[in-house]
Amino acid sequence: MEIFLSRKSLPIWLLTTVVLAGILLVSCRNNNQPAASSGVSGLPADAAALATARGLTPDDIYGALKTYMPTGQHDPYIMISSGGQSGQVYVIGVPSMRLLKAIGVFTPEPWQGYGYGGHGDKVLAGGFVDGKPILWGDTHHPSISETNGEYDGQFAFINDKANARIAVIDLRDFETKQIIKTPNAINDHGGAFVTPNTEYVIEGPQYAAPLGFEYAPLEEYAEKYRALITFWKFDRVAGRIDQSRSFQIELPPYWQDLCDAGKKVSDGWVFCNSFNTELATGGIELGNPPFEAGTARNDTDYLHIINWKKAEEIFQSGNYEMMGGIAVIRLQTAIDEGLLYFTPEPKSPHGADVTPGGEYIVVGGKLDPHVTVYSFEKIMAAIAKGGHETDQYGVPVLPLDATMEAQVELGLGPLHTVYDNKGYAYTSLFLDSAVARWTLGGPYANLNPDEPWSLIQKLPVHYNIGHITAVEGDTASPGGEFVVALSKWSIDRFANIGPLMPQNFQLVDISGTGAQMRLLYDMPIGVGEPHYAQIIRADRLKPWQVYPEIGWDPGTMAPHPNAITSSEQARVERNGNHVEIWMTVVRSHFYPERVEIKQGDHVTWHLTSLERTPDATHGFAISGYNINLSLEPGETQTIEFVADRSGTFTYYCTEFCSALHLEMLGYMLVEP
Ligand code: K7E
Ligand code: CUA
Q1: Per-residue pLDDT reduced to its tens digit, 631-647
Q2: What is the CATH number assigned to the segment(s) 77-280+291-540?
Q3: How far away, in angstroms, is 510 Cα from ligand 1 center?
C-alpha cells in the first residue's frame, strides 16, 4: 500500500501504471469478479476495485497518474493563458490543469481589487480609446519575456484584439502594470510576440482601416486603408513599454494575421502571415461577395518578411513621420529601404511559427491541407538575388519556389504549429479536430528515427482545436513532455450547463516518439474563449511571496510616499474640504476604525498592510461607494473619491483573514 502511495519515486509510479493497467485488462475480462484480491503484492486492492467500479481503462489510469498532483506538490510548469473575451489572463498549473489565478488585465477584477478605486484604475485608464472607457478586451496572444530566446519569467504581455491595445504584466506579483492604446489602429491581432531579448514587443494588425481610423468610404479601400505593425520598445528596468522609443511600419491593407519573431539565425526579422490580398470589402447587400468568400478567391496570400533591425536603424535615423504620438515608417520608405518583402503562401493561411533554431517558418494552410515550410536561408538568398516582381503597392514578392523548403500534408484546417526537443512539430487541425505530429528536416532530422517532413500521427481532440501550445514551446530550446490543445468546442465533454459551453484545454502527452501521443486530460474553461497560451517551467519564475517591504506600491513597484509603518501613525487630517486618511491594515483591525467626514469632501485614503506573513491578505471594501481593494502583505494603495452621498457606510475586510475577520470593519459616517 505504501508503495502505491509513494510520492517521491517516479519509477514506482510507472511500474504501478503498468501493473494496474494489466490488472484492469484482467478485471475487464472477469467483469463480474470483484477485483479486491489482485494477487499482485504491494498493490492496494481498493485501488483496483475503484478503477473497475468506475470503468476506467488503462489509458484513463495512465492519464490520471500523469496528471494527478498530490496535496502539497507543485506543478512543474505554469501556463499563462489568454482569457479571450474576459479580457483577462489565466494562470494554470501543468500537468494538473489547476487554475491558480485570474489576472485582471483589460477588465476590472474584483478579487485582485483591480479597477475599483486603487492603482488599477490608472492602469485601465491607459487603455481608454480617445478618452472613452473600454472595460473589457478580447485577449489572444500572451507572450512571456525572453532572454537569449528563452523565457526569463520576468514579464508577460498580451494584446486586446478588439481595441488594439497591449498590456504588461509583471511576474513578480502577477499584476498588470501598464495598458497602452496602440496609436493609429483600432484593432490588432498578431501580437504580442517578443524578440529574443524582449527588445520589442510586436503587435501585428488585423482588419485594415485608414491610419488613425479616420472615416473613409470602403470604395476607397485600396488607396486609403492601411495596416500597421507596431514595435513596442520594452524598458526592462522600468518594466514599462516606452512609446517614445517605439515605432510602427505602414503595411498594405491585407489582413496580417499572426506574427512571430525570428530567432538565432533569423534574429532581427519578423514574419507575419496574411489573408485578404483580394482587398475584399464585403458588401453582400450590394451584390458583392461576402467577406468569407471575397477573402478566399486568390490561390495565394503573402507571408510578410520584415527586417526589424534595419527598421530600428531607419527609425533612429529619423526617416519617419510622427502620427498620433508615435513614429510611423511609411510604406514607401519600408520598400525603398528594403525592410519589407513578401512571398506567396497558399489559400488563406493561418499562423506563422518559427522553428527553435530560427531556420524555418511554418505557415498553416487553413483552407489547404498542407503546412508550408519556408527556409530563412532561401529567403535571404532570394532577397540578395533581387529583380523581383512587386505587388500592387510596390512590395517585392519573392517567388514561392525560391523560398519554400517543404510542404507537408497534414489534414484539414492546419492552423498553428509548436515544437519540441525531439525534432517534431505539432500542428492544430481545426477542421479535422486533431493534433498532427510531424517531423522537421534539416538540422532536426536526426533527433528522431522518423523520415523528415512527414506526418507521424494525428491524435483526435474534442473539438475544433484552435491554438496548440507546448512546454517552453516558443523558445530556442523547447521541452518535450506536454502540449495543450486549446479546443474551441466541448459539446458532450462536460455536464450540461446551458447553451453557452466552456472551451476545452486538452493536455496531451508527447513524451514518447513516433505515433505515441496520448490524450491525458480535459480542462473546461468557462470564462471566455482563450486563443493562445504559453507554458513556462515553473522554476524560471521568481515571484514574491510578500511585497519587499511594508509600504510597497505595486503601481510603481517602489516604496509608496504615503506609506506608514505602524498603527500609531494612523490618522485623519482635514484641510478645508479635503480629508486625507492614513490607515493601517493588519489582523484584525483597520486603524482608524471610524472615519467621520462631510458630504462633498474630497477624500484621499492611503491604506498600508503591515502584514509580513505570506498569504495574510486583507480586502477593503466601502459599501455603496464601488470601492474594493486587495491588500497583500506589505502593500500600500491610495484611493481618492468625493463623498457625494451622505449616510452611514461600513468598510470591511473581504478576505477571511483570521478568526476575528468578521470583526475587521469600520464605519465611514458622511454627515449631510
Ligand atoms: Cu488562431 Cu487569434 Cu491566434 Cu484564435 S488566433 S485560434
Ligand atoms: Cu482582514 Cu478579513
Answers
A1: 999 999 999 999 999 99
A2: 2.130.10.10
A3: 22
